[in-house]
Amino acid sequence: MTISNDGKTAGAELGEDVIISTSNLQKTYDAGEVKVNALKGIDFDVQRGEMVAVMGPSGCGKTTLLNCLSGIDEPTAGEVVIDGKSLYKMRDGARTEFRANSMGFIFQFFNLLPVLSVVENVELPLLVAGVKPREARKKALAMVDMAGLSGQGAKRPAELSGGQQQRVAIARALVNEPAIVWCDEPTGNLDSETQNEIMDLLCKLNKEKGQAFVLVTHSGEVGARADRVVKMRDGLIEKHVTNGVKSRGEAVRITD
Ligand SMILES: Nc1ncnc2c1ncn2[C@@H]1O[C@H](COP(=O)(O)OP(=O)(O)OP(=O)(O)O)[C@@H](O)[C@H]1O
Ligand SMILES: [Mg+2]
Q1: Is the per-residue pLDDT at 241 higher than 80?
Q2: How far is the CA of 125 from the centre of ligand 1 (A)?
Q3: Is the pTM of the predicted complex or chain greater than 0.70?
Q4: Residue 228: exposure state from Cβ atoms within 10 A (0-12, 13-18, ≥19)
């Protein structure tokens, strides 16, 4: 285990192939008279294929960091560079397309579409990306199997357990093989046994597919499964704890 305060070198043990990079990232929410400095200058790099857990007390800025890094919420200052491209220098349409092709999202409350079946939820990102329906269905069914949901494709989300619903959300986030997967408390709504099963799945996919994972969590058990834990406090990164180097498959590259 290595402890570091330098976000630019903390991931370097895993290689020099940076996929996410930000310097002096700041976000101020301006809610009328009250201004909240949610991010006060974050320096942070993530290596291709690295799994990073972001931890810290409620309100310290974890979700804000994830949203600014992933293009959901524009920062007040600082640049976000993903695979060599400056996210907020792109036009809106180009950024939306770039995000759809290179990023997957997993949230605490699954965010599945209730009227669609499991396989229809999973194939949606492929159809949006213009993949032909027959090909999309084939890929979605394979991903449903990979997520441990064989034979469940025709069910609606409401017919599944919480853990199974999160598996559907994971399959949907990963079906178009994004190079980066953002997770905001992916196990926050699950019991500890189901949490471990979901982490087994995420770690397996991270290792096999070489995708970078940035994962916000309140759980020390989840943090222990990551390559590195980034500890935040009051809008700043307090320290990086590197858990050790693990072997992994070839990392995914963004193509556009
Ligand atoms: N849309 C918003 N408008 C105004 N203030 C906001 C907004 N979103 C977040 N904040 C504030 O920014 C700070 C950081 O919030 P954030 O949601 O990033 O925290 P968090 O670390 O994810 O917390 P939690 O663990 O509870 O999810 C908090 O003080 C919060 O109240
Ligand atoms: Mg949050």
Answers
A1: yes
A2: 28
A3: yes
A4: buried
